[in-house]
Specification:
Helix content: 55-70%
Order of helices and strands: HHHHHHH
Distance between the termini: 26 Å
Largest sheet: none
Shape: elongated
């Protein structure tokens, strides 16, 4: 088209206003409102018993749930921040104290258990629970991140996957025996790693800028 003014007018007629994304904390809150019920419903067929908080070591289990929730929320806020061009993820200073506290609570919970090492096969049920509960949470976060495609989708998805894993750990803690064994804890961490890897593989093309 030789007439540049006509081309500009034509393009201007087709342009749609850009909608500014909501702040990361609002997107995180909306994700939680959708993801938590979906994760709980997805895992309902696998686990229907609530944690017995009268057992010894219940304080460590409760602290584990609270720290996992805090880590999950921070990770999701960080992922939504990073998905916006020009924004950076939250620095390690936000996560290091909570992560260190979570490790201490997990170790204390294992130490307070009557059988700290556990038996072969412990944690397989927990691993399945985390995958079942985390799958719909990953799907929801991918839909949320599609509105702000990323130049580095893998890094964004690693953070989001860790957030999903932490929130899934909260759900697991609400229906898990208070006693935690090393083999059981290892399967929890394996579930978190699988969810993170699944988020990256499922979403790297979905949220990438084409």
């Amino acid at each position: 088209m030789a007439d540049h003014d006509a081309l500009i007018d034509r393009l201007a007629r087709d342009v749609r206003p850009v909608r500014r994304p909501a702040p990361p904390w609002q997107r995180t809150a909306a994700w939680l409102l959708l993801a938590l019920p979906c994760g709980a419903l997805a895992s309902w067929a696998l686990q229907r018993r609530a944690t017995d908080w009268s057992q010894p070591g219940a304080a460590w289990a409760g602290l584990d749930i609270m720290l996992s929730f805090a880590l999950g929320v921070l990770a999701m806020v960080s992922a939504f921040r990073r998905s916006i061009a020009g924004r950076e993820a939250l620095g390690w200073r936000w996560f290091a104290p909570l992560a260190a506290a979570w490790v201490c609570a997990a170790v204390a919970g294992v130490a307070s258990s009557g059988d700290p090492f556990g038996r072969l096969g412990d944690g397989v049920h927990c691993y399945a629970f985390m995958l079942l509960a985390g799958a719909p949470m990953i799907a929801i976060v991918l839909l949320a991140l599609r509105s702000t495609p990323s130049l580095q989708p893998e890094r964004t998805l690693v953070i989001a996957g860790l957030g999903v894993a932490a929130i899934t750990q909260c759900l697991l803690g609400l229906c898990h025996p208070v006693a935690v064994h090393l083999l059981d804890l290892g399967m929890h961490l394996a579930g978190a790693l699988t969810l993170t890897l699944g988020a990256v593989l499922a979403g790297r093309r979905c949220i990438a800028i084409e």
